[in-house]
Amino acid sequence: MREYPLRCALLALWGAPYVVLGALPRCGLAAPIPPRETKEIATLSGHSSCVYWVAFTPDGTTLVSGALDSKVKLWDVGRGKLVATLEGHTTPVESVAFSHDGQTVASADRDGNIRLWDVANRRQTASFRGHTGEVVSLAFSRDGRTLASAGYPATVKLWDVASKKELSALTGEARFWWNSLAYDKQGKLFAVDLSVTLWDVSARKKLAATEGHDLQAMGFGFSPDRTTLASGGTDGLVKLWDVATGKKLATFTLPDQVTCVAFSPDGRTLAVGWTAAKTMKIDGSITMVDAVTGKEIATVTGHTRALCCLAFSPDGRTLASASVDSTIKLWSVPAR
Hints:
It is a single chain. The protein has strands at 18-20, 30-32, 39-45, 51-56, 62-67, 72-76, 81-86, 93-98, 104-109, 113-118, 123-129, 135-140, 146-151, 155-160, 165-171, 178-183, 189-193, 197-200, 205-209, 217-222, 228-233, 237-242, 248-253, 257-263, 269-275, 284-290, 296-303, 307-312, 318-323, 327-332. By secondary structure, it is mainly beta. A hairpin with a 5-residue loop joins strand 12 and strand 13 (146-151). It has a four-stranded antiparallel beta sheet with strand order 3-30-29-28, with no helix packed on it. The chain is globular and about 50 Å long. The chain has no helices and 30 strands. It has one domain: 7 Propeller (Methylamine Dehydrogenase, Chain H), CATH 2.130.10.10.
């Protein structure tokens, strides 16, 4: 059993500094000042143990987090304050996701239980049970009618949100469970397993098998247009793959073991979380690289333990990181 599942999710803008522009109406509308460097701007503390996954509402006002402490927490982004703790899971919560209208949160735990929550009322509205092991990734379809879940052993299930019934299931090779799910704008659902094999779940077929990593693949991230997959491994490498063909597009070398990756919304920047295992350090570092050239843009530190996931805000100005140290940090990202 993995001690620290590695998860990604979408995060939204943290309140950057503001200045009132003279050309704006008298109502005092403000425009954000673009950050000049990547630096820590906030820390959210409230979980008692490793934070596995985070996700933001589409309007970026509320953050949801799931953690080893079996809690689902909602945060007010503008104030950086805890709004509510959603209780019901009895094992670690390893994935969370918002519906595209921001009204529903899905959460999944190590025992395979999936729960739906009403965001406004902070109440559970449904529960799904079908996986025989932990569920490590969730994704809502764009119309919100279907919830996809990936879990052990190597099974992706589709659920009808309205009827709360299982629609279908796709099973891969048991030893290579699926780790990441993503819908594209056309409604096609993609999945990747730990062997870095790509699947079109909607068509129920394998797309491509890649050469993978020499050591364990740990973190995955799809580009915004879903045409490219980034994978990071304990071999210290980040590899980019063509989703349709499985062809390797590029390889970037990081200082040590890679634990998570995330594309910026414009696809130009890749954030990479890594830990210096070779020197027996257990803290987490983040390196921003050009997604085309692999050139380092910036490296920041701050977490005292390894990183579990990274995600950019929708406008790309903020990067969020969740860690084994039980905190979530928000970082300013300069415009490129």
